[in-house]
Structure formats: structure tokens, C-alpha cells
Design brief:
Layout: H1 2-6, E1 22-27, H2 33-38, E2 43-48, H3 66-79, E3 84-88, H4 114-120, H5 122-135, E4 140-145, H6 151-171, E5 180-185, H7 188-192, H8 194-198, E6 203-206, H9 208-216, H10 234-249, E7 253-256, H11 267-272, E8 277-280, H12 285-293, H13 297-309, H14 313-323
Parallel strand pairs: 1-2, 1-8, 2-3, 3-4, 4-5, 5-6, 6-7
Helix pairs in contact: 3-5, 5-6, 13-14
The structure holds phosphoenolpyruvate and magnesium ion.
């Protein structure tokens, strides 16, 4: 079966009725890029930049400076040979502290993490933004911001990106002035107040891992409640579908970059919701592509509408399974 999948590497990801789908890779380090290309990725949809910062030295205190970050981002951009590279800004803090001696929050998932941490540490954030912008001179880069919920966070972030650009311009350092900036939609409030985001952002990427955690109030790393972590909960499905539709209506590209995007059992459900951009672990790419190649979009879309109206978990699970037999 694996051999059969490998044959699909160069086949374009197009549904039976001719709709093109973008398949991107989630990576942690630039070294993951060759593997992503090998799996047929059309680009990187999520570069989890925190992996450059984590596990550094005995106490994790030595964060990489601008030049070192720039080299790593550039390495990824060059390795992808002109394909899109979406670099997510630092998603640390709370449970992944840069300084482990700092106080630990009682509810780390609700604490000072990701963009909240970056806006509280503007020097660190500016350094990363400068490094990403410098790398944008070598290919097609997008900047993705994690954990946004408030309009002022978006505005502050955009102002800092402008500040980084101004600095580089004044220093005569090259960057791509057209770099797109997008938001991770992974806090329910962001999904429910999406017009606030589409006005300010150029693309969206739905982080289903955190979106489910916050929507269902299930700690994603707590095994005692893992059985309650259900991507098919009707509230989850409807919020994802609504986010895709609202984003598209505003003319924005919308991706899913959480684990759901890499689950071939959910490929058709997401297609039926209108999703056309999937970002996943490279190991999942060909299996998801195979689902897409065999998909009849019209039939799937009609069925998905029905699934979104269903409220009984058994009914939803059975209908999602049925999508695969279409
Ligand atoms: C997500 O939350 O779905 C996501 C893609 O980001 P992470 O898993 O790194 O939090
Ligand atoms: Mg997340």
C-alpha cells in the first residue's frame, strides 16, 4: 500500500471533478524540509519555530539571536525551492517556558503563551520578526501568529512587523515587502469573532489541536480526559465549517494545520466544509492526497451539510465514515 501511495508523489492533488487542493507540510526544523518535498508537499503550512528555541543548553536560557534564526529560516526557505514557507512566530511560554526558573502558571494553557508572551517580550519578538523578514528575501514567506484573540493583539503585532520592516529598510537590509501575515484561529473567541480578524489579516490557519482543547475544555495533554477530546463534537465541526466559510467569503485563504488535517478519515469531511488547504505532518501527505483524488466534491458537500445539522454523536460518526464510501 505504501508503494502505491509513493506513486502519487508527483500527482497533483485534484478532486475527481477537477478542484485543486493545496497540501502543505508541518515542520519543526529546516532539516524536515527534504522529507516534506519527498512526500510531495507544495510548501510549508506550519513551521513551528519554537523548536529552534527549545532544549537549548542545561537551563534553556540561551535563545537564538537574530543571525542564527535568520540562517535557520533561510535554510528552510532555500530548501523548499521557491515554494511557500509559513513561519509561525514563537509559541512558547507557560508550559514551555524559555526560562524554567520563571513562575509557573496554575493554568498554563490559559496563561502567558505564544503571542501573549511575545508582546510581553517585545525585544525577543522584534528579533524574531527581523530574522523572518530577512529570510523572506530568499523565497516565498508568510508569517503566522499563534493564539490571537483580541483586536489589540493583532494591531500591536502588525505594528511590530512594521517597525521591523522600517528598521531593515533604514539599514538597507533586503526583505520581501509583500510578506503576508496571517492568524492561527485556535481560540474559540477568535473563530466566533472572525470578522475582527479578516479585516486585519491576509490569511487564516485553523489550529484544531488548541481549538478543540479550548472549545471542549479538555487539556490536550491530560490523559485522564483524553477520551473526551472529540474532533467530531458538533460544536467543533460547526465552528470549523463556519470559520472556513467566513474566511473564504472575505477572500482569504483558509488552511487547517492541526492534527485533523492529517487524518485521512477526516479529509472528505473537511473538503465538504469547503477546505482547500491542508497542512500536516509529511508522513500523512500521500494518504490524504489519495482521499482527495478519489473524492466527488458535489456528493461530499451535500452530505457534509447534513452532518453539520446532526447533533447525535453516533449519527455524526456513522455519517463521517460513510463519506469515505462515496
Ligand atoms: C494547533 O493548535 O492545532 C496547532 C497546529 O498548533 P500546535 O499543535 O503547535 O499548538
Ligand atoms: Mg496551537
Amino acid at each position: 500500500a505504501r508503494k502505491r501511495l509513493l506513486k502519487l508523489k508527483k500527482t497533483p492533488a485534484v478532486t475527481k471533478d477537477g478542484t485543486a487542493v493545496t497540501l502543505l507540510a508541518n515542520i519543526e526544523l529546516p532539516e524536515d524540509c527534504p522529507g516534506a518535498l519527498e512526500a510531495g508537499a507544495m510548501g510549508v503550512g506550519l513551521f513551528r519555530s519554537e523548536f529552534l528555541f527549545m532544549g537549548r543548553g542545561p537551563n534553556g536560557l540561551k535563545v537564538p539571536g537574530e543571525d542564527e534564526q535568520f540562517e535557520q529560516y533561510r535554510k528552510a526557505v532555500v530548501a523548499m525551492k521557491g515554494r511557500l514557507v509559513t513561519i509561525r512566530t514563537l509559541d512558547v511560554g507557560a508550559d514551555k517556558p524559555l526560562d524554567p526558573t520563571e513562575h509557573t502558571a496554575l493554568n498554563p494553557a490559559l496563561g502567558l503563551r505564544a503571542i501573549r508572551y511575545c508582546l510581553a517580550e517585545p525585544q525577543l519578538f522584534l528579533t524574531q520578526l527581523r530574522a523572518i523578514l530577512r529570510a523572506s528575501a530568499y523565497g516565498k514567506v508568510r508569517i503566522l501568529i499563534p493564539m490571537l484573540a483580541h483586536a489589540f493583539e493583532i494591531d500591536q503585532t502588525l505594528a511590530m512587523i512594521e517597525q521591523a520592516k522600517t528598521q531593515l529598510r533604514e539599514e538597507g537590509v533586503k526583505y520581501d515587502p509583500g510578506v503576508e501575515v496571517g492568524a492561527m484561529i485556535e481560540i474559540p473567541a477568535a473563530a466566533l469573532a472572525l470578522p475582527m480578524f479578516v479585516k486585519r489579516m491576509q490569511f487564516l490557519s485553523i489550529g484544531t489541536n488548541d481549538l478543540i482543547q479550548y472549545l471542549l475544555a479538555i487539556d490536550r495533554v491530560d490523559y485522564e480526559v483524553a477520551h473526551l477530546y472529540n474532533p467530531l463534537h458538533p460544536a467543533v465541526l460547526n465552528l470549523i465549517a463556519q470559520t472556513i466559510a467566513t474566511g473564504h467569503k472575505a477572500g482569504l485563504d483558509v488552511a487547517v494545520c492541526g492534527e485533523m488535517a492529517g487524518d485521512p478519515k477526516l479529509t472528505r469531511l473537511l473538503l465538504g466544509m469547503g477546505l482547500r488547504e491542508f497542512s500536516m505532518h509529511p508522513a500523512q501527505l500521500l494518504a490524504v492526497k489519495q482521499e482527495i483524488l478519489n473524492s466527488d466534491l458535489a456528493a461530499i458537500t451535500t452530505r457534509t451539510r447534513r452532518i453539520l445539522r446532526a447533533v447525535e454523536p453516533n449519527e455524526i460518526a456513522a455519517a463521517v465514515e460513510q463519506l469515505q464510501t462515496l
